[in-house]
Amino acid sequence: MDTDSQRLAQQTMAFVLAGGRGSRLYELTDIRAKPAMYFGGKSRIIDFALSNAVNSGIKRIGVATQYKAHSLIRHLQRGWSFFRAERNESLDILPASQQMGNENWYKGTADAVAQNIEVIRGYGPKYIVILAGDHIYKQDYSLMLKQHVESGADVTVGCIEVPLQEAKGFGVMKVGDDDRILDFIEKPADPPSMPGHPDLALASMGIYVFETEYLCDLLQKDAEDPNSSHDFGGDIIPDIVKNGKAVAHPFSRSCVRSGLEEKPYWRDVGTVDAFWQANVDLTNFKPELDLYDNTWPIWTYSELTAPAKFIHNENGRRGHAVSSMVSGGCIISGSTLDRCFLFTGVRTHSYSQLEGVVAMPYAEINRRARLTNVILDRGVQIPEGLVVGENAKEDAERFRRTENGICLITQPMIDRLDK
Fold it and tell me: What pLDDT does 196 receive?
């Protein structure tokens, strides 16, 4: 990081929007917000945005929470309590709260920031970076800040190329030769393609850079507008595109890659299929996301656990794993694992066979179970002899099965099997 970028980062606050449910994850987000979802063995999804900020030199952070926030808040308290006020560092957890003239809940992404203007102004940052707390990626925000200042933009919007058919869920933009955003449409039914690339669209990553006082003025006007949905993508950004200077920042310019990562990595793991795929992909010989890169660490809460253990060495009862990742505290007892991703404290018992299993913390797979292409929620107890992934009709009747054949299993689903 050069001196100019470092100086800009020190003058900046990051504001993370972490209140979303993530309804397309179904039962996985019944008790936790999407940013609090487990990912990559030890981390939560929000750790990526927070780690990017810290690694970029931004040490003032606010996290706006809303839906089912307890799991997220507990994680932040346990894993992100290392900030020191005497070093001009802080992490504020900002739940929606009753205020004079306001309802309890945040009405939109812009309203989430507007309701915390006094907190933001209390720290006096010159710049503010607005971040979504529910994506997996590594990015140096200081490079985006530098472009924002040098371009004289009113807002700089992080953007990424996505397949046209997936663009309906994003803000889609048209950009000129000088990176100036000429048009911005939030979640269009018929997204426009990129010039020369009919199968791609340029989508917003939900990352915005502003001068703080400029944003505060905008938010105050937006709050007084009865016709506004109080949303960045729906209201604030389109207004700046029309009446100010909005500039795009391609993710490829500031993504962080180790020597193993061949192309920029960004994932929205907002569906059951996407969540399963992104975790299983990490077991590849050469994964697209390098979690072993110590030059850009993903900070998180690390539980104190014993090392993973593999036991029994008999024919048909041999604890072993192939192309799998196994976290601390796991015991693989006489079981076979192939392309599996086990989070902390998972236990597998003798003669069980697991293929393509993503098991969240403290799940337990009892004897002679056979699981294929499955996600196990935290603490799920798989009964002895249960077979999943071999009979699509039977799986769909008992569990949540996607069109791609991934089965999501929660403890209430298991409890219903005995009734």
Answer: 86
Q: Among candidates 135, 134, 133, 155, which has minimal Cα distance to 144?
A: 155
106 labelled ligand-binding = yes
CATH topology agreement for domains 3-283 and 309-418: no
The domain spans of the chain are 3-283, 309-418
pLDDT of residue 419: 67
Residue 294 CA: distances (Å) to CA of 143, 209, 299, 334: 20, 27, 10, 33
Chain centroid offset of residue 389 CA = 27
Tell me whether residue 355 is annotated as binding. no
Which CATH number is associated with domain 3-283? 3.90.550.10
Regions of the chain short of the pLDDT cut 50? none
The pair of three-digit structure tokens given for residue 376, joined into one six-digit string: 């196990």
SS3 64: strand
What are the tokens at 94?
């900002």
* CA 328 – CA 58 distance, rounded (Å): 30
Asked whether residue 67 is marked as a ligand-binding residue, the answer is no
Amino acid in the structure at residue 60: R
* Measured distance CA(39)–CA(361) in Å, rounded: 11
pLDDT of res. 101: 54
Residue with tokens 């036991």: 311
pLDDT tens by residue, 243-267: 999 999 999 999 999 988 999 999 9
Domain 309-418 has CATH 3.30.1330.120: no
204 annotated binding-site participant:
yes
With contact defined as beta carbons under 8 Å apart, do 93 and 73 qualify? yes
